[in-house]
Design brief:
With 170 residues, the protein is α+β, with helices and mostly antiparallel strands. The protein contains 3 helices and 9 strands. It binds coenzyme A.
Amino acid sequence: MIRLIKSSDLPALEWDGAYSHFRQVYREVYEQSRIGRTLPWVIDLPSEGIIGQLFVQLDSQNKRFADGSSRAYLFSFRIKPKFQGQGWGTRLLSSVEKDLIDRGFHWTTLKVSKLNELARQFYEHRGYAIIAEEQGEWRYVDHQGIQRVVIDPSYCMEKCLVKEKSPCET
Ligand SMILES: CC(C)(COP(=O)(O)OP(=O)(O)OC[C@H]1O[C@@H](n2cnc3c(N)ncnc32)[C@H](O)[C@@H]1OP(=O)(O)O)[C@@H](O)C(=O)NCCC(=O)NCCS
């Protein structure tokens, strides 16, 4: 079942410690979802619990990526290793894109590391095109309150969600 997270899901998003460093980031994403700025989707299987996630930023200061009405930014997309390559990521992405179309959005945007060739191909095979490159520097505060700096040169990608219905307008 694909659904939005509840506050009680937050510990499960740490995946047994692998993502504890994102505790505050996920808490913030959850808080932002309560005021309609994010949509944190997960796949929740009855026997396994949460096996994947894909978060959506509906609005942000950088309107090129998310502008609250037409463009939405996808981030934190991952499927647990044991479940990768079985179609779960495709199902989750399709479901999130359909939900965004229903909300009136025309474009999805995302960033993918230049080192992550498999993921870039995954997106290209699903209609995403590279529109820019960037240095990929971002900061977050980890679960111990320490500010971390990540430098991960990335491709910026986008996809028009409504090609068949009407031309995409930015
Ligand atoms: C990328 C990811 C979300 C795709 O989900 P998935 O459930 O494995 O993908 P599906 O089974 O629906 O589809 C398989 C496709 O994913 C690609 N893929 C990307 N990374 C993969 C991985 N680690 N294992 C298996 N397939 C992977 C396959 O090449 C295949 O591509 P194709 O169908 O276009 O030929 C998932 O593999 C993952 O979590 N990877 C690690 C984290 C990551 O890279 N996230 C993206 C950050 S931008």
